[in-house]
Specification:
Rossmann fold, six-stranded parallel beta sheet, globular, binds adenosine-5'-triphosphate, binds magnesium ion
Length: 218
């Protein structure tokens, strides 16, 4: 059975944290490939500062072009209107019933996933691979990194949430064994607004693309 990872995201812009967790997922779960799937019109996001899907796809393509087994999927990006993970997974699963899908996300998303559309369908159609992000707030819609709050405390809350979801939805949730990566697209956009270099936080080709196209500047 083919094992395919799906790395969904706004990718506004894609950063090295995304690549690191996808790489880890591929290794730890012996995935045959990972699909990078930029969202269409983002759901639960501040629309004003999200770049068009075509631009986010281009940056994603640049970020993964030299990495074997990483592929761009524009399945969601080409959609008009909101894209929903449940529908994407249903679509993929009906096209490829014999594929074992692994949906990769940041552990912060586990606190928001019940507010996503049809979480029960999501859990039914894939295994969730969750990566811990250092100092993550409780929900994916809050981008603030708490000033206090230790990683240890976060881990306790996270374990409880994982057990709760496993029980309620018979969900298959696995943790990615990766040391937390303290980086977010929000932080990168903020740095670019301020004129700070994001060298080392995004792939070099993405950095060059952002500079050439004057993206995320005030
Ligand atoms: P934003 O700050 O705009 O929300 P983001 O960095 O969270 O951006 P997304 O495109 O929202 O990036 O993320 C796609 C997926 O990757 C989400 O499931 C998110 O939780 C996860 N993710 C992003 N960065 C990290 C990180 N550093 N560690 C773990 N997971 C991450
Ligand atoms: Mg996010």
């Amino acid at each position: 059975m083919e094992k395919i990872g799906i790395m969904g995201g706004t990718f506004n812009p894609i950063h090295n944290g995304h690549l690191a967790i996808a790489q880890k997922a591929k290794e730890q779960f012996a995935l045959d490939k990972v699909l990078f799937m930029p969202s269409g019109v983002p759901y639960m996001k501040n629309l004003r500062e999200v770049l068009p899907a075509t631009v986010r796809c281009e940056m994603t393509a640049l970020a993964i072009r030299d990495i074997p087994c990483f592929e761009l999927s524009d399945l969601e990006a080409v959609e008009q209107g909101n894209t929903y993970t449940c529908r994407t997974l249903e679509k993929l699963k009906s096209l490829h019933p014999d594929t074992d899908y692994h949906f990769i996300l940041g552990a912060d998303s586990l606190f928001a996933i019940e507010e996503w559309r049809h979480p029960e369908q999501i859990f039914q159609n894939c295994t969730i691979l969750a990566a811990v992000r250092k100092g993550t707030a409780k929900t994916d819609t809050s981008h603030e990194i708490p000033a206090s709050g230790s990683v240890k405390t976060d881990t306790g809350i996270l374990q409880t949430q994982v057990q709760y979801l496993q029980k309620k939805y018979q969900a298959s949730i696995e943790m990615l064994e990766i040391s937390a990566i303290d980086i977010s697209s929000t932080q990168i956009r903020r740095m670019l607004h301020q004129g700070t270099s994001v060298h080392g936080l995004v792939p070099e080709a993405v950095e060059a693309y952002i500079t050439e196209n004057h993206l995320y500047q005030s």
